[in-house]
Every structure is written in structure tokens, then in C-alpha cells.
């Protein structure tokens, strides 16, 4: 069992690693739309990106609690965890639903850094978060599935060797439940590009390496089916709970980053002959942000512990993500206000993190959909849509 001291040790080790990649490193990548190859490589080789892979497959065999500490510290250090965080949770789909042959083949290579699995192919331009209505279709043809369709906002695909793809294998109108008839597949990205898979980068507000994908008779070996045909929705859901928890931890890291920056600047910056932090109008908003962030962290810890114990944690994972993302966004706004005009100067690094943390009001699921989930599934109120 991991102790509080162990978690502190993990946090300190991640902090030391991140110090080798200062904020100027991330600013340069943001400007060039570059990928942090060196950072991801070192994070993998140090074992921090593979903490969730069992020891029998070459990983550390730890839980989402430990993984959350890693992601929180990465963000608190000023780094951009979104460049690599999916390496943790997408792997869980293979671990929980893959055949033993698939696990033996893929997981050791992922743990060793030989393969990157850090893309979910789920979202589509016409259906968004209405996942069960997606239109990408995989038709069985002998020993292959033939895939046609389109995906959007698929992050890190250009820097990933593998992708977990969700597609319909049975038309929605031929199923008893809308969650049936969806299947998950492991896609070899390199072998697929130019042979039925086209990748088109999206120029967006943040450096998240997101792309549109186009499938035109892409053939995927039937052996790459992940789990059972028609039960792919369950495969994706498992990964989504871990995703929400880890992103919530990242938001806490962002929030702590903003509070650290704001409190330091408010203490050092003098206007009218006194530090601006002496003014309650400056210090009270920062203190409130600190309280909100620490409260959100408690929900992250609760959700992570439930996930690791194998308990249903959909509500907790979603609430952790909502509370943490809102707390980090408020902290970012207060940090901007504290710095005044300097907050807009890229050399202060705040505006980059401000953009990065804003995403999590929307992705991987919007705040309103989380509220709808809680209202229906926890409070037992009528379904709103």
C-alpha cells in the first residue's frame, strides 16, 4: 500500500524531472506547435507514464492515486500534461478488455517506451458527445474489418503508434439498446496512414496536437478487436473514468500553479509604495482560489481511491473533473488579474497555462453534461435530453 510519504516521494521526483524542462521549453513548443518528445521520453523511461501497467507487463503496477500525483505535479511545474496524459488511461482499455495475447504483445512495449498508445478515436463532427450515435462503421470482411467514417478532435495521433478506435459494427436501429453494436479496435497508426487513414491537423487555440481523421475502406485485422464485438462502449467507458480523474488532477496542478504564481507576484510587486498583496482586494481572491483547489483535490483523491478499489466511480470521476476544472479556471483568471498587463506577456507564461486549463471546461466532457449525469444518475431526476 502506497503511503503519504511514498506519494510525496513520487511528487518530488516528478518535480525534479520537470525542472529539466523549464517554462521556456514549453513556451517554445507552444510557439512552434511542437511536440515535447524529449520530455515524454524521459517521463516514460522514469516509469511515471507507466505507473498503471502491472509489473508482470513491465510497469510499476501502481494505481490511479499515484498516477494522479504524477499528473498534478507535471502541471504544477508549468508543463503541459495534455501532450502525454493519454498514455496512462488509454492503456487501461487494453489492460481490462484485451485478450492475453494482446496484453502480452502491447503492454510490455508500451511500458518500455517502444510503442505509444495515447489516442482515443471516439468523437465525430456530427455527433460530439452523443457517442452512441456515431456514424463511423466497421464492416466484417473475412479476417478484417473495413472501416469508413470520420473522427474529429483526436489528440496526439501524429505522435502515437497506436489508437483505440470506436466504431459501429451493428446499425443503431438494429440494436435493443443504443449502447450496443459499438466495437473497439486497436489501430496501428503507422501502418494505416495512406492505406485508408488520412490525418489532418486542426489549428486550434492550444497546442494539443488535435486532428481530424478520415477513414476510407481502412482494413483492420479482426485480431485487433478489443473485447467482444458489439461491446465496445464498455471498453471506452472504463478508460473515460480514469481519464476524468487524471485530468481533474491536472486541473488541480494548474490551479496550484496559478496560486503559486499569483501569491508570489502579489508579495513582490510594489505599487504606491507597498506590495499589492497587502490589499485584501488582491489577497482574498487568491486565498479563495486556494481553498477551492484544495477542496477539489479531495474529490480527486476520493474518485481515484474508488477506481483503484474497483468500485463504481462514474459520478465521483465526473464531479472531480468538474470541480477541479472550474477551480483551475477561476485561479487562472485571478492570476491574470493579479499580474495585470504583464499576464498577457508570453514571457510570464501565464497566458499559455490560462489557455490550456480553459479546455477542461469542455473536454473530455462539458460541465453541463456532468451536471445532467449527476441529476439523472445520482439524484434520480428525470432525464433532461
Give the secondary structure arrangement, pairings included.
Blueprint: H1 4-18, H2 23-32, H3 37-45, H4 64-76, H5 86-89, H6 91-97, H7 100-111, E1 117-121, E2 137-141, E3 144-155, E4 162-168, E5 182-188, H8 189-192, E6 197-201, E7 210-221, E8 225-226, H9 232-268, E9 270-271, E10 274-275, H10 280-308, H11 314-339, H12 350-358, H13 367-378
Description:
The chain is α+β, with helices and mostly antiparallel strands and 385 residues long. It has helices at residues 4-18, 23-32, 37-45, 64-76, 86-89, 91-97, 100-111, 189-192, 232-268, 280-308, 314-339, 350-358, 367-378; strands spanning 117-121, 137-141, 144-155, 162-168, 182-188, 197-201, 210-221, 225-226, 270-271, 274-275. Strands 1-4-5-8 form a four-stranded mixed sheet. A four-stranded antiparallel sheet has the order 2-3-7-6, with no helix packed on it. Strands 9-10 form a two-stranded antiparallel sheet. Helix 9 (232-268) packs antiparallel against helix 10. The protein is globular. The N and C termini lie far apart (42 Å).
Amino acid at each position: 500500500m502506497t503511503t503519504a510519504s511514498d506519494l510525496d516521494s513520487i511528487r518530488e521526483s516528478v518535480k525534479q524531472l520537470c525542472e529539466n524542462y523549464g517554462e521556456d521549453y514549453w513556451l517554445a513548443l507552444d510557439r512552434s506547435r511542437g511536440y515535447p518528445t524529449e520530455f515524454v521520453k524521459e517521463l516514460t523511461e522514469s516509469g511515471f507514464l507507466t505507473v498503471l501497467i502491472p509489473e508482470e507487463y513491465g510497469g510499476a503496477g501502481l494505481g490511479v492515486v499515484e498516477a494522479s500525483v504524477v499528473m498534478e505535479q507535471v502541471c504544477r511545474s508549468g508543463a503541459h500534461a495534455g501532450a502525454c496524459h493519454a498514455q496512462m488511461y488509454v492503456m487501461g482499455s487494453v489492460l481490462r478488455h484485451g485478450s492475453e495475447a494482446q496484453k502480452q504483445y502491447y503492454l510490455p512495449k508500451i511500458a518500455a517506451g517502444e510503442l505509444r498508445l495515447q489516442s482515443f478515436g471516439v468523437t465525430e463532427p456530427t455527433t460530439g458527445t452523443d457517442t452512441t450515435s456515431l456514424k463511423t462503421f466497421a464492416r466484417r470482411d473475412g479476417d478484417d474489418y473495413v472501416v469508413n467514417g470520420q473522427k474529429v478532435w483526436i489528440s496526439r495521433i501524429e505522435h502515437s503508434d497506436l489508437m483505440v478506435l470506436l466504431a459501429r459494427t451493428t446499425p443503431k436501429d438494429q440494436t435493443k439498446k443504443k449502447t450496443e453494436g459499438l466495437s473497439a479496435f486497436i489501430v496501428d497508426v503507422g501502418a494505416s496512414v495512406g492505406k485508408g487513414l488520412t490525418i489532418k491537423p486542426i489549428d486550434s487555440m492550444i497546442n494539443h496536437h488535435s486532428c481530424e481523421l478520415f477513414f476510407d475502406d481502412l482494413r483492420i485485422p479482426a485480431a485487433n478487436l478489443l473485447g467482444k464485438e458489439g461491446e465496445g462502449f464498455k471498453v471506452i467507458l472504463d478508460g473515460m473514468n480514469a481519464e476524468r480523474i487524471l485530468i481533474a488532477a491536472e486541473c488541480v496542478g494548474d490551479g496550484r500553479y496559478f496560486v503559486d504564481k499569483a501569491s508570489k507576484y502579489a508579495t513582490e510587486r510594489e505599487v504606491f509604495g507597498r506590495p499589492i498583496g497587502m490589499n485584501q482586494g488582491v489577497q482574498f481572491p487568491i486565498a479563495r482560489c486556494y481553498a477551492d483547489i484544495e477542496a477539489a483535490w479531495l474529490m480527486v483523491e476520493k474518485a481515484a481511491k474508488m477506481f483503484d478499489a474497483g468500485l463504481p466511480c462514474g459520478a465521483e470521476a465526473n464531479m472531480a473533473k468538474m470541480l477541479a476544472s472550474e477551480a483551475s479556471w477561476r485561479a487562472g483568471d485571478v492570476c491574470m488579474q493579479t499580474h495585470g498587463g504583464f499576464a498577457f506577456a508570453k514571457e510570464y507564461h501565464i497566458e499559455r497555462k490560462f489557455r490550456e486549463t480553459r479546455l477542461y471546461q469542455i473536454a473530455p466532457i462539458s460541465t453541463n453534461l456532468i451536471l445532467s449525469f449527476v441529476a439523472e444518475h445520482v439524484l434520480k431526476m428525470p432525464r433532461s435530453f
